[in-house]
Predict the 3D structure of the following.
Amino acid sequence: MKLLAALASPYARKVRIVLAEKRIECDTEMVDVAPTENPVNPHNPLGKVPTLVLDDGTALYDSRVIVEFLDNASPIARLIPEDNRERVAVRRWEALADGVLDAGLLVRYESLRPKKEQSKAWVDKQLARMHRSMAVMDADLGERTWCHGERYSLADIALGCCLGWLDFRKPGEVDWRGAYGNVSRSYAKLMERPAFAETAPRAA
C-alpha cells in the first residue's frame, strides 16, 4: 500500500496515526496538491490527500473511508467499536472534529485572499461554527480521560488531529486552550503518544 499525504494535512495525519497505532506497514509519499495537475489526480479525481493506494491499484479517499478500512485490516488496537451505538458515537466525534477543521480551513483560505476581497461575515460564520462545536466537544469530554468510553479510540485521534492543526495554523487566532480546558487537557495527554509526536503537522 502507499499513502499519498501532506505534512500539514490534519486529515492525512489522522490516517498516519491510525497506521502507526495499528502497526500496519505502508509506504508514504508526501505530495503537493496545490497545482491543478498533481500526483494525486491519477488515483483520486478530487486531487486531495489523504489517498490510499492499495496493492491491487484500488484507491481509497477521504480520511473517514481510509481509517475504517485500516481498522478492519488488522485486529491490533481496534479503534472503532463493533457495537452499532458505540461505533456511531465514535464516528460522531470524528465528524465533529473534522467539521471544526473544515471551518478552520475556510477561515485560513479566506485570510490568504487579498485583504479587500475578504469577507468578515464569512469568517465570523466559520468561527462561530468552530466555537459551537468545540464547546460541545469540551462538554461531552468532561473530566473523562478519553472521548468515548474507557479506552483510546478513533474519537481521540480525530480530536487530537483537529487541535494539532488549530495549534499549527491558528485560524482566526482561536484560543482553544484558554476557552476549552477539557479538550486542552486531552490534547496534552494525546501528545504523549509516540504516534502523535511523530506526526506533528509542519510545512513542507
In short: The beta strands are 2-5, 27-30, 51-53, 59-61. Residues 16 and 197 are 12 Å apart (CA to CA). The two ends are 22 Å apart (CA to CA). The longest strand covers residues 2-5.
